[in-house]
Amino acid sequence: MTDILLVYIPCKSEEQARTIGRHLLSKKLCACINIYPEMESLYFWPPKSETMEEAHEAVLIAKTSKALYQELEDEVTKIHTYKCPCIMAIPTENINKPYYDWLKGELK
């Protein structure tokens, strides 16, 4: 297991994903972002209701360290437009050394 996390953040649009990603990069809270511009989500909203919502979203993946996760989460929470955004950290098992070294060098 490494100290690097992939942070999964669904956003209302590709534009919002890019805005959040650039904000995180500028603060050195992540070394790299990936944006998947089209995803379809289905969920019940409001919580505990029988109303199933369908949404077209974009996915932002931010690559960061465990040490920076909480600060990254706090920043996303401040600027994300969702009332209850999904900010989910996925641990990484292995990373090739040159990429790991580059990634760590880009973080604050």
Automatic annotation (TrEMBL):
* GO process terms (BP): response to metal ion
Q: Which GO terms describe its molecular function?
A: copper ion binding
Source domain of life is Bacteria
InterPro entries membership: Ion_tolerance_CutA, N-reg_PII-like_a/b, N-reg_PII/ATP_PRibTrfase_C
Looking up Gene3D superfamilies in the UniProt record yields:
3.30.70.120
Q: Which family does it belong to?
A: Belongs to the CutA family.
Full protein name:
Divalent-cation tolerance protein CutA
In its UniProt entry, the species of origin is given as: Candidatus Roizmanbacteria bacterium CG03_land_8_20_14_0_80_39_12
